[in-house]
Amino acid sequence: xxTRISIxxxxxxxxxxxxxxEKLQGLExxxxxxxxxxxxxxxxxxxxxxxxxxxxxxGAVLVADVKREAFGAAxxxxxxxxxxxxxxxxxxxxxxxxxxx
Length: 101
Known about the structure:
The protein has 101 residues and is an alpha+beta fold. The chain has one domain (2-97): Ribosome hibernation promotion factor-like (Double Stranded RNA Binding Domain). It has 2 helices and 4 strands. The chain has helices spanning 14-27, 71-97; strands at 2-6, 36-44, 47-55, 61-68. It has a 4-stranded mixed β-sheet with strand order 1-2-3-4, covered by helices on one side. Helix 1 links the parallel strand 1 and strand 2 (36-44). It is elongated and about 50 Å long.
């Protein structure tokens, strides 16, 4: 899985960048056919905005967009939302393959 982290206008410390990278790599266990995952970190006045985008193949793209005052809370919620979407997508694929639609 390819990962990309973009920070358009603000600098985040390297430790936060590596924390995000670890979280993105951990998401692969919920659906192992993820082609690429990207994270966009932005600081909007008093809040942190994190957008996670997963390309899961066959044209499907999953997006989790969260805005919170604390960076950690924003990251955790974005990861939780993406986890739920990946699990749901996995279940859909498995159901389709087994003829349950």
